[in-house]
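Record 1 of the preview.
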Amino acid sequence: MPAVSKREEASVKSAASRPDAARRAASGFLASGLGVALFSSAVFGLSGSFAKSLLETGWTPGAAVTARLTGAALILVIPAVPALRGRWGQLRDNWVTILLFGLIGVAACQLFYFNAVERLSVGVALLLEYLAPVIIVLWLWAASRRRPRPLTIAGTLLSLGGLILVLDLTGAVKIDVVGVLWGIAAAVCLAIYFFITAKENDTLPPIVLASGGLMVGAVVMWLAAATGLLPMAFSVADTKLGPWVTPWWVSLGGLIVLATVLAYVSGIVAARALGSKVASFVSLTEVLFAVIWAWLLLGELPGPVQLLGGMLIVGGVVLVRVDELRGPAAVPAAAGGPASDAGAAPLPAPLDHANDVEPVP
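->
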């Protein structure tokens, strides 16, 4: 009998250790930042579905963006104030960055994206916005007149080929040209945002930049509405999310709390844990999450050709970012030039930003 009791005791200990091991594994996964980064992508991907459910009941894109920015700004100011630690001079020193981030990375980028969502499927609209790295490469190529490295060129061509498939010009369903233009405009704003934050900045906490940008964006949207430049219409009609009919405030609350506040905070945490470059790779899963959420909550699913195009766009962006991680290629020193110029990069790293804050799609 002693042998049996030992086996039973070992079995009990083994069974008890399994939950502990599972908890440790889960804790390590989250601590690594990868789990947080995936969570951030998942909740960011909800924005298009929540917004479209409101737009379908009579909300204008401007109203949805304004409500989102206002609510999120009021919530994020709570952790932003203690993050400053009384160093209010940081706001004065970085007011240009905060202003441009709020105008372009927040207000304009979201307004254009929501206008695209109003006319296109959520997945297609987001894929168009994800062409931003390609726009950056093309702009730097034209401005510097220096050819990018082969991997970057391959990624750019792959994404452009994917764009053609996403538009599905020969498909039975005609693409909305105006919606496409809105999506490309959002991509341009995203590209400008990356240029704005390309300069390393360790003086401004990311949560402060996020909160400040949201405040600036909200103020701009309200001013534009007050002057009649921005159509503003709200609705209290119920929204439809998948099989559920919910009050309007459910979609709005999800848009503010899940797709903005939690998305921003978790994105910042992930960027600090993984580094902004690695986190930017994980953030590409947002497209996948956005398509899945739109399918589950709105019944939207891009066609096979568009899905293939989406994979090409994301694949192209991955190649561009992989090339960026390899570091700048060295250029021989010019004749008579200083030796310190020998390590100059032929093309600036387009996505190397240190603020750890992504504009909300």
